[in-house]
Sequence to fold (335 residues):
Amino acid sequence: MSFEQIMTDLKNRKFRPVYFLMGEEPYFVDLISDYIAGNALADTEKVFNQVVMYGRDSNVYSVLDAAKRFPMMSSHQVVIVKEAQNLKEIDKLQFYLEKPLKSTILVICYKAKPDKRLKFYKTIEKLTDIVLFDSKKLYDNQVPGWIGNFLAERGYTIPPVASALLTEYTGTELSKIVNELNKLIISLPENEKNITLEHIETKVGISKEYNVFELQNAIVERNILKANRIINHFERNPKNNTVVDIVRFLYSNFFVKLLKFHYLTDKSRSSLSKELGINPYFAKDFEIAARNYPAPRIIQIISILREYDLKAKGVGNASASDADLMREMIFKILH
Fold:
């Protein structure tokens, strides 16, 4: 089942005997388990009928004992097993999962990618009384759109460049992103519904003028002065601006996609969004860059990026600082 389907059922109080919540993105797993913990039982029922266990501190037999108990003065009991990826011999739950107690809502939070080749997984995948949910990590290019949707559901907006910038500096961990978004929402003036670059600069601490996207724009425009100003800022604020970070960004977010751009037959903005995995807002940057960087030159630049990735990791570099390596790298890219 999808996250949306599960939450719709829960809000309609359609509870199932077992929820097996797995996957590498803990955000959705936590939302589902927290909702069940907060809403399946009345507060007066939770004292005797709600149990939270942790995989590292429990064993499969204590989970089974808890799940097989009957509720006290309630129609249901809730048993939540957090960090179930640390529960040894979890496959021994199979016999219970095949015939679960209807009065128990068992929630298994398995925050990892299970081995789907195992008999245990293949068995539970076929069971009808189980809600099986795979919480997959979003790809980098999916996160800005997710941020936009998250805010839109709450009545707020954010420009594409701002959501992309926030993604680059927070990473793809949704819990961390949501924490930053909630801080931004709280900080907005009354009746203000648009989160801007200025808000991100003030509350998150990311410069709207000196960041990797502005460095990319300087490269697109072949603006040497602007590129060097940004590198000078990076030198003064090195924490989130290492050579390795810059190389990764320019390689995966820009030059590999730009090389692919050259070989696309359909270069309409809707096609670019689909084929390159970019927001249509950024399509114009690729159109301009393609004129400044033909395909053979991009292949040379990718080699430069690999060279400086190795140097940043100490291969063939004895003493050059990150800033010096960045200056050399950008000089070679722009000349």
Remarks:
- The chain has three domains: 3-134, 140-203, 212-334.
